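Notes continue from the previous slide.

Worked example: a multi-chain complex. Inputs as given:
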Amino acid sequence: MSHPAPEELLLDYAAGALAAGPALAVALHVALDPAARRTVERLGALGGALIEGEGDTALDEALLQSTLARLDGVAVEPRPAPYMPRPGFEWAPAPLAPHLGPQTRWRRVFGGFEEMRLSLPGEHRVSLLRLEPGRGLPMHRHVGEEFTVVLQGGYTDSTGDYGVGDFAVGPGPEQHEPIADPGDPCIALIVVEKPIVLTGPFGRFLNPLVRRGVI
Amino acid sequence: MAQGREIKSVLAGQTYTRVKELLVGLSADQLVVIRKAFFEDKTHTVIAEELKLPLGTVKSRIRLALGRLREALEKDES
């Protein structure tokens, strides 16, 4: 994996501190990247060990026994059905499934560029973008934080090549122009804190639409 | 309580018990940041603001702590 999520973001995720949008981005990355999954598991163990070390409250033996006895009475739940992506959504890892309702579908933004908006609580704009090979996003710069996870195909920008499972953090004020790689169309989840500002020749016309949330 | 501890380690896996030992090896600076994350559900950005530390300092503490954890656990696994 050439572009892992930063470890401090994995800690935020493991601690349950992230807002819904960024948490989904990290969950998808973790679903696709075994190294990130191992890190999150370790962080979970670290959190558990910290909580365990807290206060040293001795567990009352009788309480332990009665709790264990109650557990014996709990019916074993059937194993959840294995995740089966919907037809046409084979690229979607399991954490995305709850957000893909029957009415979520691709909307054409312009030639070779489609978007699927997801509604999650919080201040972030969460979308799936689908770019045909060779197509690029308009030049834009980042105002707030931006997280990208590649789910199919790949893209290249001034910071490098990104493939399935790769995670990108918005590079701040510098401009960049991602172009989809040859092969399958590039599908990525993008989580943006604030509307982006388009800086290319069409930016002046598109920015009011961005601000209104049209694109 | 030896039996209780055994049950816990079986439930949570080997990593958990090992991590508990490793916690001792983390610096106080690293622990403060990680504790705040887990106990107060705060992101590293918020933690940096609260502790009045540069964001880079908080990030490097998290990375150092994780590096130590990974190193020690991977040595166990190999």
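Summary box: The interface with chain A takes residues 1, 4, 12-13, 15-16, 18-20, 22-23, 34-35, 37-39, 41-44, 46, 58-59, 62-63, 66, 69-70, 73 of chain B (CB under 8 Å). The helical segments of chain B are 2-12, 14-23, 28-40, 44-51, 55-77.
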